[in-house]
Amino acid sequence: MKSLIVVPALLPTIAILWYCLQSVLSTSVLWTILVGIPVLMAVLGNAAPDLIPLCLFPYLMTIQIVTLLLDQLKQIIHPPKLQFVPKGRVKKVAVIGAGSSGITAAKEAIAAGFEVVMFEQTSAIGGNWVFRESDAHSSVYRSTVINTSKQLMTYSDFPMSSDTPTYPHHTEIVKYFQSYADHFGVMDKIRFHTRVLDVQLFDGDRWKVTSCPTAESDVGKPPKEYAQLRDVGTACASLNSGSQTVEEFDAVLVCNGHHSIPSWPNFPGQATFKGHMMHSHSYKDPTSCDKGFDYRGKRVVVVGVGNSGVDIAVELSRVTEQLYLSTRSGVWVLPKYAHGQAIDHIWSLKRVEAMCLPDSVFESDLFSGLTGDIFEHRLKTVQGDMDDWGMRPKHRLLQAHFTVHQDLLHRIGLGSISMQDNIKEIVEDGVVFESGKRVQVDAIIFSTGYLIRFPFLTKEHTPVNEENHVRLYRYMLNPKLPPTMSFIGFLQPLGALMPISELQSRWMMQILKGERGVPESEAMEQLITNRLNKIWKRFLPRPRHSTEVHYHVIMERLAEEVGCVPRVWNPRNWKVLKELLLAPSGWPFTYRLQGPGQWDGAADALKTAFNQIGKHP
Predict the structure, then answer these.
(1) Which of 213, 301, 348, 378 is most buried when burial is the number of CB atoms within 10 A of its CB?
(2) Using CA atoms, how far apart are residues 260 and 493, in angstroms rounded to an integer?
């Protein structure tokens, strides 16, 4: 027991030791050593096992508090070199794209007092959440249901209605976006059927935006038809328009999304296939897809086991003669529900748990490995080993973006879906898998992701390299450009995108108003390189993972920048203390409880959402 007394007495010293060593040792090694100290002392002191967690909690909390204080002290002694947008410099802001990221960016820009002009090439807000019969523009398929819970995907000051299902259909999501845009006055700022063709930097940090109107039939013309044309007049003419407008803006928020240009694979023999081939980008339903192809009674291969690929495979398996689902590296499939709750309520840390650990721990190999082990074990107890279902993942659970689906295993069990490994070769009438198995098929659907492109930017201003890797500070700012241009929503979270885009927008408004600074270009470049190096160690080396983020970590970091992290010691939060501590960390409403942009309805919204956990209207 003396050891349990000694440990608290040493807490400040151990915490300072942590702070000094974290730049020398890897996070995994450091935490193994530091967490081992109190555990070892407790064991040597013959402490009861149930007392060890009681010893660890204040220990971890002290490390957090001391780290926070020392960080603040370091900022005072050695303030970082920051660049600021001069106060009052920004008055007029352009927002490109009226999808889920664009409407929240515009809403925050309006709230900040800027003059806002929003460009949207289609006739509706919502981006690819708006279902369209034509495959000209990116769109969900007819049956799409979101795979994150409504509590996780809602905007922080505009909760979804209590009777909205836990996992809403795409039509309900679009209605929600419409209500949000109406409520905050965004609709009046949108120029529909207007495509941005060119954005040019001038006067050091200002922007000339060239746009032209588009007819509905022109909306889907692939950007490649005009992306390389720097003659904007020629580009406009190619869109059957002929008219163009050039306007000057003080800032540009790029929100055009990253699911518009399909990424096609190139398998040996692909050009020889005589059946129907298409990308999941064009899929609508089993009977009205690309060129009216009808999949009923056909033999089909779906390539790719991301959420879209699995959705399409499951839906088609109900009407096809046989559905083959091909994967090159296997996949971990999580159910939408477990123990009566949405799966993202279960895998998310509670705030009381997250408070004990610095953000660096969440991105460490040790934490990833331990939590991966725990979730893999829990997953096996719910639905068995992935190998037994033919998934054969070649990676750990948290080393790649997992897939969430409730019905895949059921369809495999019925024989409607046959899991196969990667394609070795495509032949005239079918495919040959790497296992050597050859099957005759009528159609192949490639669910192989998208290319991230900005057709209105010059190559020098584009933050994506030839490998489709994104280089952005905080996933927002291009170090080669002034901070008056930002990219909102260009990340791939293990969670929902909408609240992250909202926090990015809130922070960006503070930058544009001159209230917050950002690192200088060289420092940004180094921070981006450091982040990517961590990503390539933790995740599989795939292009999509260059934008992969841990939902909790990015939300907390952005909230720190904004100044809206909910503090449990703030008396304002005590009336929702239980909900704040026990709700999944990163819930959007918690970032409106205090700080800039606080909302009086946040506490009630948090309580309502918390009380709906495990209940399904």
Answers:
(1) 301
(2) 18
What is the DSSP code (8-state) at residue 428?
Answer: T
**Cα–Cα distance measured from residue 76 to residue 78, given in angstroms and rounded to the nearest whole number:** 6
Weakest mean pLDDT among 57-61, 229-233, 245-249: 229-233
SS3 300: strand
CB under 8 A, 24+ apart: contacts of 73-78: none
What percent of the chain clears pLDDT 70, i.e. is strictly above it?
79
The helix/strand count (H/E) of the chain reads as 18, 26
Average pLDDT, stretch 267-296? 88
The rounded distance, in Å, linking the Cα atoms of 49 and 68 is 30
Return the exposure string of 246-283: e unless at least 16 CB atoms fall within 10 Å of the residue's CB, then b. eeebbbbbbbbbbbbbbeeeebeebeebebbbbbbbbb
Residue 222 pLDDT exceeds 50: no
**DSSP letters of 514-555?**
TSS-EE-HHHHHHHHHHHHHHHHHHS-S-GGGGGEE-HHHHH
d(CA 293, CA 275): 11
Greater pLDDT, 77 or 58:
77
Return the number of other C-beta atoms located less than 10 Å from residue 223's C-beta: 17
pLDDT (0 to 100) of residue 75:
65
269 sits in the region (left: phi over 0; alpha: psi -120 to 50; else beta) called left
Nearest to 128 by CA among 105, 146, 106, 108: 146
Contact 146, 153 (CB under 8 A): yes
Beta bridge partners of 444: 277, 301
CA angle 341, 280, 457 (to 5 degrees): 100
Which tokens in the block code for residue 175? 């209605």
Longest dimension (CA), the chain: 83
Round to whole Å and give the CA distance between 65 and 385. Answer: 41
The DSSP line for 239-270 is TT----EEEEESEEEE---S-SEE-----TTG
Instruction: Assess contact for 232 and 195: CB atoms under 8 A.
Output: no
E-strand spans in 305-452? 322-326, 333-334, 337-338, 341-342, 403-404, 417-420, 423-427, 430-433, 438-440, 443-446, 450-451
Are the C-beta atoms of 302 and 323 separated by less than 8 Å? yes
Bigger pLDDT: 410 vs 371: 410
Q: Name the DSSP letter for residue 145.
A: B
What is the per-residue pLDDT across 347-383, written as a single tens digit (0 to 9) for each? 777 777 776 666 666 666 666 666 777 788 888 888 8
Confirm if 155 and 176 have CB atoms less than 8 A apart. Answer: no
Q: Supply the DSSP string of 189-233, one letter for each residue.
A: GEETTEEEEEEEEETTTEEEEEEEE--GGGTTS-GGGTTT---HH
For residue 180, the number of C-alpha atoms closer than 13 Å in the C-beta half-sphere is: 29
Cα-flanking dihedrals φ and ψ of residue 184, to 5°?
Answer: -100, 15
Residue among 591, 553, 558, 545 nearest 361 (CA): 553
